Amino acid sequence: MSTTTITDVPAYCEQLADAAVAASHTLVTLSGAKRAAVLHAIAQQLIDRTDALVEANAADLAQADELGLTNAMKDRLKIDPARVKKMADSVAQIADQVDPVGQIIDGFVRPNGLRIEKVRVPIGVTLIIYESRPNVTSDAAALCIKSGNAVILRGGKEAIHSNAAIAGIVREALQAEGVDPNTVQLVGTTDRSVVGELLKMDEKISVVIPRGGESLIRAVVEQSRIPVVKHYTGNCHVYVDSGAKDLPEGMARDIVVNAKVQRPGVCNAAESILFHADVPELLIESCIALAENSVKLRVDAHAAKLLEGKVDTLEADESDWLAEYLDLIVAVKVVDSLDEAVAHINKYGSKHTDAILTSDTFAADRFVQQVDSADVMVNCSTRFSDGGEYGLGAEIGISTDKLHARGPMGAADLTTYKWVVRGNGQIRE
Amino acid sequence: MSTTTITDVPAYCEQLADAAVAASHTLVTLSGAKRAAVLHAIAQQLIDRTDALVEANAADLAQADELGLTNAMKDRLKIDPARVKKMADSVAQIADQVDPVGQIIDGFVRPNGLRIEKVRVPIGVTLIIYESRPNVTSDAAALCIKSGNAVILRGGKEAIHSNAAIAGIVREALQAEGVDPNTVQLVGTTDRSVVGELLKMDEKISVVIPRGGESLIRAVVEQSRIPVVKHYTGNCHVYVDSGAKDLPEGMARDIVVNAKVQRPGVCNAAESILFHADVPELLIESCIALAENSVKLRVDAHAAKLLEGKVDTLEADESDWLAEYLDLIVAVKVVDSLDEAVAHINKYGSKHTDAILTSDTFAADRFVQQVDSADVMVNCSTRFSDGGEYGLGAEIGISTDKLHARGPMGAADLTTYKWVVRGNGQIRE
């Protein structure tokens, strides 16, 4: 599991996939108690071997400048004892979740006596392609073990030593518990052609989840014969409805500021704020508060007029309605109706998370029904669109696709179902 | 909606997709009662205009020889009053199904007071690519209307007149009920480049369902940026376990024969029968019955020895274990254990439908757990693997994929979900 030069990439990938398929066949026979025991063993081992993890991580950090990592990237890459503790806690938390495997989703008896059940089962073999943060290695491994899946992990070269150390601990723990260590395999080379090769193996790998920048994800979709679950960007909106004027004093302003400012670099932060023309005072109050929080405002002509002499603004253009700034910048627009807000969000948004602030139940219901996004919120911050906040434990990813899973994905989203049909001799006429 | 020559294919496809997206935005606001009313109107119109449908179909049949259609294909293409009645009945049955839209799949309150629901919603815009049978046009349109989706239908050129007549009736009924007729659009050209163009439009079309031969489906997967739900082949198995000797007299034989013979040309017919070595008498009895039903036997050496002098057999090779004959031919193999049967099925099968015949509950449970197929059956014919038999009404397709839907797919499988989060001012700390 160390970094090696692979001479025959197709053969190497075939071997990874075959080993994963073989592991997946044994995983379906494991009890939930056994899968949880493996996870608790991994959590303990992560803590016990904190020093080794920090040391491996130091090797990655030593090459970070050479690889041209920014300070923000270096920060995401870094492992210290507190972060190891967080990784271990996350694994232990996943261990203690309700077991999704074997849940009966639906069941009925047909007129001919056939007893039919839809039963949750592991997907089989998953491929996770990710960048920078080494905790994805332990989180993804844990979610796949919890849900009875084998996983092939392909991390970034900037984290190869950290990822190898974490995956090594996971594999040792699997082996110690008598479970096939190939349940979790880390691609042991940074050779880029490995990804292209793995993405052809739709007979052996059932799903690929890319996590990283938009260009990484687009490249995966372009190449993959395997179904991809993904999200490209998070262009999230907060719409302050005319009905927001009857909300408690300051609530709309506080939510707008929180959605933009609390952690601007993440996908569920707000990028555009839409204000109904009937609530100019909420627009002014919110924009002043945003400016006080160092947020730069890109505004339409109507908003510019309202804000003139109060805060500095820049003129917004079409590109601002599409932008995922991931920064202390926000686009601001005035709309004349809820319909205009909905149309704007469905046109420019990324189908991720959009919120309405209103005390009007009719407006809230219409917004919830008509905005075509994975997460639609009423009177709270878009920042709650998150697996942890929804109680799913660690996320395996977020989906803005419509198939299979939508929004934050937990362990249950790594399962499919099987139709189980039990009879007593039925044949078709 | 007639067959026309399209000069600018990309522009034509853009227009189809934009019209579908616009329709999908209005569809989410329709009540279930309205969607059902549209479907009942379509069912009535199909009946009332039987003569026009038969006439349009005659135009297709007139060109069938020129297009090189076999007799079986001509039979699938044909529309007569009885078949129109069946199409109408199917649409009416879909109308009366439980409405999947708006169902709350999950719901809970978080410690911070956020009320979270997962609510079933339409997927949006679907693309169905299919061959020959014109009833797919009305079935697919009906399932999409029921589930609140807009659909772009791309039928085969051999059925273009029939499909245009059916789609015309559907669109008139939509319009008469005040619903956007672009809810259902039929591609009005047989130009093959249209498919490639549509398959690039992943921003506007959310799922593609190809229905037809394996080469059609592989071509769609190869080209598509849109998620595809599909099944390639049906290599279904019946495994006659050692525990089958205690089943009622003749039951194993009757199920084996039914699975193979009742309709050999369809995907849920059995292609391979595995017998445990401990039940030679069931092998002999079943194979004699198969031969009496004109089934040709391709058998391994062990089975050949048992059948010597009793029925004619041919020697099976590796290709027989992989074959989807869709004909009165069957592969027969003797296995020494349930484990061997499971390993054979997971290696050679197509993850479609596989059955075990046994009176041993432990054997049945292990088979159900370990066989990695969409439908796993105990003591009944594989032929029951079907949306109608499961009570789903008409099928939009069958999936041997693991994502989104598996096995027969009904109207509910044309929905996704939305996370709806309601708060009263929550912000993240």
Quickly describe the structure.
Two copies of one chain form a homodimer. With 429 residues, chain A is an alpha/beta fold.
How is this structure best described in words?
The structure is a homodimer of 429-residue chains. Chain A has 429 residues and is an alpha/beta fold. Helix content of chain A is 40%, strand content 20%. The first copy, chain A, contains 15 helices and 16 strands. In chain A, the strands form 4 sheets. In chain A, strands 10-9-11-8-7-12-13 form a 7-stranded parallel β-sheet, with helices on both faces. A 4-stranded parallel β-sheet of chain A has the order 5-4-3-6, with helices on both faces. Chains A and B meet through helix 10, helix 15, strand 13 and strand 16 of A and helix 10, helix 15, strand 13 and strand 16 of B. Strand 16 (415-426) of chain A pairs parallel with strand 13 (375-380) of chain B, so a sheet runs across the interface.
Give the number of DSSP strands of chain A: 16
Please give the order of strands in the largest beta sheet of chain A: 10-9-11-8-7-12-13
Largest interface: A-B, 68 and 68 residues
Q: How much is the average pLDDT of chain A? A: 95
Q: Which stretches of chain A of 5+ consecutive residues score pLDDT under 50? A: none
CATH topology (level 3) name of the largest domain in chain A: Aldehyde Dehydrogenase, Chain A, domain 1
User: Which value, in Å, is the CA radius of gyration of chain A?
Assistant: 24 Å
Number of helices of chain A: 15
State the CATH class of the largest domain in chain A: Alpha Beta
CATH superfamily of the largest domain in chain A, please?
Answer: Aldehyde Dehydrogenase, Chain A, domain 1
User: In this structure, how is the largest beta sheet of chain A organized?
Assistant: 7 strands, parallel
Q: What's the assembly state of these chains?
A: homodimer
Number of domains of chain A: 2
Q: What is the architecture of the largest domain in chain A at the second tier of CATH?
A: 3-Layer(aba) Sandwich
Measure the end-to-end span of chain A.
Answer: 56 Å
Helix/strand class of chain A = alpha/beta
Global geometry of chain A:
globular
How helix-rich are the residues of chain A, as a percent range?
A: 40-55%
* Beta-strand percentage range of chain A: 15-25%
